[in-house]
Amino acid sequence: MKKETIEEFLLRGEKQGSFLISDVATHGCSGGTISELIYYDDTAKFHDQHQDEIWDELITMSEDFGNSPLELIASFNGGVEVSSMTSLKNLLSWWICEHIAQRISDEREDGKRSCA
User: Fold this and answer.
1) Which residues contact 79 (CB under 8 A, 6 or more apart)?
2) For residue range 14-35, what is the model confidence (pLDDT) as tens digits?
3) Is the pLDDT reported for residue 116 higher than 60?
4) Counting Cβ atoms within 10 Å, is residue 115 exposed (0-12), middle (13-18) or buried (19+)?
């Protein structure tokens, strides 16, 4: 069985009426925008399920900016507050959802993708 990508997770959540991708892109996840990603247990599990995809995106972005993945993480909102592996997983889970939601929103604005 094929594992759901983060993009598919976001599109499914929007289609089910759980959240709007535009809200995730605009407001982020820290306010509980995605109800499945509020608690540390949930964000840690999400990270573990999508670890390869998260780190592929992180490494690509860090290369684009000419710095290391750790330097990039430190630049994220809340990055300086990472004090445990659990808080790192939380930060990365929120970041990747916001990052991919922004990509989807940009594609929609450019007319390359229709809404769910």
Assistant:
1) 73, 91
2) 999 999 999 999 999 988 999 9
3) no
4) exposed
pLDDT for residue 52 is more than 90: yes
Q: Where are the domains of the chain?
A: 13-109
Q: Which two tokens stand for residue 21?
A: 């991708």
State the Cα–Cα distance between residues 105 and 99, nearest whole angstrom.
Answer: 10
* Mean pLDDT of the region 74-94: 86
Q: Which pair of structure tokens corresponds to residue 76?
A: 């994220």
Q: Report, in angstroms and rounded to the nearest whole number, the Rg of the chain calculated over CA atoms.
A: 14
Q: Is the pLDDT of residue 113 over 80?
A: no
Task: Supply 108's token pair.
Answer: 């929609």
Structure tokens at 25: 């892109």
Q: Which residues of 7-26 are buried (b: 16+ CB within 10 A; e: fewer)?
A: eebbbebbeeeebbbbbbbe
Cβ-in-10-Å burial (0-12, 13-18, 19+) of 98 comes to: buried
